[in-house]
Specification:
The chain has helices at residues 4-15, 21-24, 34-47, 52-55, 80-97, 105-108, 114-142, 150-166, 173-182, 189-196, 204-266, 268-284; strands spanning 64-68, 74-78. The protein is mostly helical and 311 residues long. The longest helix has 63 residues, at 204-266. Pfam families: Retrotran_gag_2.
Length: 311
């Protein structure tokens, strides 16, 4: 028979988990969260060494020991191993039912062991989860970066991968890199070619860091044309006053020389002064500035008309 001290020792490891189950597992099982809840509960059972009760690795021992007395009468009594196992199993059943929502609780009624309960819940909700897995696989293979940042994009991929991993479907790092590359926009074609051309498989950690660096480069190249356009616009604005100034100077030459012609008819000395001022305009004139519009043919100038007026 099991002593009181043995009973207390055997009950304490599992029973002590029940009050803290709400903090260890933050979801109650319903029609939509079987995988999430199952993953958390499985971690809890494995970390405490009691997963074997629900997956069948620790089967129920023989219930009775048979023995014969001196008179030859055969009798049996419950074995200590069975009693201990049964206490553990009932505690685990209590632990599992603590993670069920009120609607799902009806599925637990009638279960004879923790393994039976575990199997019933799996059969009841795995059909829904298989549909979710199919949809998640489709989403993972068609996911696109779009307008999301690289961090958000990679987080979506990781979330889908974790969900599928909890359901028992695992993707190699190389497959995840390929899926992530396929969802990148056309601006990352160069980066895509570089990663695909590597001789060795890149780790997810290095892939993430390089992709974040590529995001900075792409953002910079996208903004560069705007900066160039602004610089060109600024240059053209700066050039406008120069042209206006050049025009006003040339126009000023014409005005000065016209005044010089008029002053020469009235007063040669004053006209000579005007001509000197006009000559200074000639000296400061850029060599590339055309003169036909400065001295039109209708204006003969102070020296009279000259056929060699073209410069």
């Amino acid at each position: 028979m099991v002593t009181a001290s043995q009973l207390q020792l055997l009950q304490s490891p599992i029973i002590a988990l029940i009050p803290s189950i709400s903090t260890s597992i933050n979801v109650k099982l319903d029609d939509s969260n079987y995988l999430n809840r199952n993953f958390q509960l499985q971690l809890l059972l494995e970390s405490n060494g009691i997963m074997g009760y629900v997956d069948g690795l620790l089967p129920c021992p023989p219930q009775h020991d048979s023995y014969s007395d001196e008179s030859g009468i055969t009798s049996s009594s419950p074995t200590n191993e069975y009693i201990v196992w049964k206490m553990h199993d009932r505690a685990i059943m209590q632990l599992i039912t603590a993670t069920l929502s009120p609607i799902v609780m009806s599925c637990a009624i009638g279960s004879i062991s923790s393994k039976d309960l575990w199997t019933k819940l799996k059969e009841q909700f795995s059909t829904v989860s298989r549909t979710s897995i199919f949809q998640m696989k489709s989403n993972l293979q068609t996911i696109k970066k779009g307008s999301d940042s690289i961090s958000q994009y990679l987080h979506q991929i990781k979330e889908a991968r974790d969900y599928l991993s909890a359901a028992g479907f695992f993707f190699a790092d190389e497959d995840i890199v390929i899926l992530a590359l396929n969802g990148l926009p056309a601006e990352c074609n160069t980066f895509r070619c570089v990663i695909r051309g590597r001789e060795s498989v890149i780790s997810l950690k290095d892939f993430r860091s390089q992709l974040l660096a590529e995001e900075v480069i792409v953002d910079t190249s996208v903004h560069n044309p705007l900066i160039t356009a602004m610089a060109a616009n600024t240059g053209s604005t700066r050039g406008a006053p120069f042209q206006s100034q050049s025009f006003s100077v040339n126009h000023g030459q014409s005005q000065v020389n016209n005044r010089g012609f008029q002053s020469y008819n009235g007063n040669k000395n004053r006209g000579r002064g005007r001509f000197t001022q006009g000559s200074r305009f000639y000296a400061s004139r850029p060599a590339f500035s055309p003169l036909p519009h400065v001295f039109p043919n209708s204006n003969s100038g102070i020296l009279g008309s000259s056929p060699s007026q073209q410069f």
